[in-house]
Amino acid sequence: MTSTQKDPVLVILQLSGGNDFMNTIIPYTNPLYYDNRPNVRISEDQVMPLNDELGFNPNMPEFKSLYEQGKVAIIQGVGYPKPNLSHFRSMDIWHTCEPEKLADEGWVGRAIRDLDPNKDNVLTGVNFGRGMPRAMAAPGVPVASVGNLETYGVLTSIEVEQERAQALDIFSRMYSPAMGHGPVVDYLSQTGMDALHGADILATAPGKYSSTVEYGDSSMSQYMRNIAQVHIANLGTRILYTTAPYNSFDTHATQMTAHAGLCTNVSRTVNDFYEDLKEHNASDNVLLLVFTEFGRRVHDNGSGTDHGSGGAAFVIGDAVKGGLYGEYPSLEEDKQSEGNLQFNNDFRGLYATLLEDWMGLDSKPIVNGGFEKLDFISKS
Amino acid sequence: MAEDIGLMAHLMRRAGFGATYEELERRAEVGYEATVEELLHPEDQPELQMDVMNRYMHGWRDKQGLMANQGYWTYRMVNSPKQLEEKMCLFWHGIFCVGDSKCMRARQILIQLDKFRIQGFGNFETLLTYLATDPAMLYYLDNQLSHKEAVNENWGRELLELFSMGVGMDDHANYTEDDVKACAQAFTGWTIANAIPRYPYGSYANKFLYNQFDHIEEDKTFLGESGNFNGEDVIRIIAKHPATARFVSRHLYNYFVADEPQVPAWQSIPPKDPELIKALEDEYFRSGYEIRSMLRVLFNSDSFKNARFAKVKSPAEAVCGTIRLVGDFTTPNPRFYDPALEIGYMGQDLMNPPTVEGWHTGKEWIDSGTLVERINFAAGEMGKVNSTGIKQIIERIKSAGETISAEDLVKRCLEMLGGYELMEENQKLLVEHAATAASMNTKTDEFAQAVSQILQLIVSTQEYQFN
Asked: pLDDT tens-digit profile of B16-54?
């Protein structure tokens, strides 16, 4: 499985809105790129080349440096058959691994269930942010969802300590899973108990943490910092998840400015996170997956780009064999799929690689079938 | 608890943001149907007076920033005498999403909400036409960047998928990708006028502009009809489509009656209550797309009356409903931004939904994070023994006599909050706890504290999370 003694940990950063692959990893020597992107383009002299054909967005120097250290696997042309161009549906597909029908069980939720079938640790999976992504939802699987790590706790409004203790005792008895009151009440009961347990443990994390790394102010940066805090606190958490909010990668308009800011933020945040873990000698058992629900239209719309397909994902960490995986989808018109990049890499194969070769799980029941794995994890 | 008061509590929680026991008694005197009519006609109700608030809350008066605007709207939800108007405003906001994260100026969304207050009860076709000309919406979905030579499909697609028909129903798709393209083409030229410079006189609201020179003048085929369609034609065709009647009816049902699965599932999962949905669809066509008529059918239906506590409260309902019972959000004080922030912490960042899909409702409001926020907030409010609402509750319970049994104390507290019903186990735990309280003598100083403790525990239950 892995070379380390510690349990492998997976961190997931979701870039909502559909990140423009073509302006993140830029085919800067391909004339078709410039033909298709008369307005929303990065000029050749600005691109930071990673080889003779492709280069990084100029706002991602930290990412490029991690790549040069061999810590970044770029998964090109990732998607699924018959791409869906609705954000929500496409994100749902990435979350549930079900392109054909609606499903409400998420792949991360299933993985958490397999990692901790007896629910020994309510913090096996932790989400950072408001609202749980569908990826983490699976019936009966506790997942803590933390809006603010510093103030997390139940009935904190009761100030007198003895009264609060009494109230918490009644609370825990009211919410003890006396199931059979209907699915929603049962869900509430379970959620209440999980919250109570999780809060007690999580409250210890910020106190154990100090770091020289200063993260940015964006909510994505702050949540990545929270992820580092919880990981470093050694609470047995195996999957940590957060989302760059507000569909911010949905750059239909004024993309050049907006996307530059987004790239800067992702690049810095990922680097800060990695440096933070390294500083605490806690990076060797962590892989970070960065994904988005789709890429964008090959041809720009004058000021931005519309929904497309065939995007890119990134896996970052010490255990990664850095490099390019899959193929950059062709920009030739007849090789596109209705104006969009043709995917050549099923995202479920990417998940399968992470689940089997990193987390040591059987991926088939989690991603709904067998998919070709990629070889980006070093097995030294 | 008298049956008519229980039913009134239900109506006021759904068609408004709840009511104190005193208000419920007053309204029960007037009667159910008369109250429904009153709620359906906000134009006959007094305006919310903002003079004093505007003097203290400059942000609310100027309406320039998201946080202030959220505070202002929350204040309206809590205090407006036109309760159903605010409820409908929130209803449309949850469907016709725009967000501050992509907006020219925060105020533009308030302008849109004002329109929902006026048109939210009216004709649905008119409402859609208004929406298609609303600068906040056009900007949110990039229609000002959709040109004759470079069509941007964002608005065209979401109009069909999220605002009027939905992707499908009864196991079939409601429209094709070609319909999306035709729809987007019909709305080329629907744009925003150039802004008036901010200086020297200050900021001006944006205005809609129809640019005929940037409109695709050619035949389009949309939902089986062909012609040189413009935006109004597309909306006319949408409004008369059965899928639209179904979509609006299901949304009303999900918001007012009982939780349905999330919108994307509506293509394959039939309505929970096909009879009421059918009645609402029929009323949609009978009345000529009048939302007010549909609401009248809804509130007077047995399905609605019997759906007590069949919905998980939205964060706005959880926060505003609790505050209305406590009554401490009426006159200016320094913590006046908190209620709106709480709604955000519970997962409903008003005027800034996570995506154009809006918020997922029902059970999906709840996760371990948001449940903690709900419980902590509501319990905190119930601890305010000096607030008007809690004082009133305490006084009423005291008036029953010199002593009170633990059973009666719990029972009276549940009534005072609007007729909540607890599971047997939880009721028993609360009675046991009440029995250990320092004093069951209503004349003692500690009695107020004992009542407040029971109230705090009630709002921490699973049952209180339901509306």
From this structure: 999 999 999 999 999 999 999 999 999 999 999 999 888
Q: Do B269 and B404 fall into the same domain?
A: no
Hunting for tokens 């009860």 — which residue is that?
Answer: B121
The range of the structural domain enclosing residue B276 comes to 3-305
Contact A252/B at CB under 8 A: yes
| Residue-wise DSSP of A8-30 | PEEEEEEETT---GGGTEE-TT-
Nearest of B128, B99, B115, B116 to residue B248 by alpha carbon: B128
Structure-token match 């067998």, residue found = A370
pLDDT by residue (tens digit) across B227-286?
A: 999 999 999 999 999 999 999 999 999 999 999 998 889 999 999 999 999 999 999 999
Domain count, chain B: 2
Which of B281, B305, B329 terminates a domain? The answer is B305
CA pair distance A146, A137, nearest whole angstrom: 15
Closest CA to B422 of A194, A167, A181: A181
pLDDT tens, position by position, A18-69: 999 999 999 999 999 999 999 999 999 999 999 999 999 999 999 999 999 9
Instruction: Tell me which residue in A154, A253, A301 faces B372 most closely, judged by beta carbons.
Output: A154
A-B Cβ pairs (cutoff 8 Å, strict): 165
Which pairing describes strands A239-244 and A9-15: parallel, antiparallel, or unpaired?
Answer: parallel
Residue A279 burial (CB < 10 Å; 0-12/13-18/19+)? middle
Domain presence at residue B150: yes
- The answer to whether the beta carbons of residues B437 and B451 sit under 8 Å apart is no
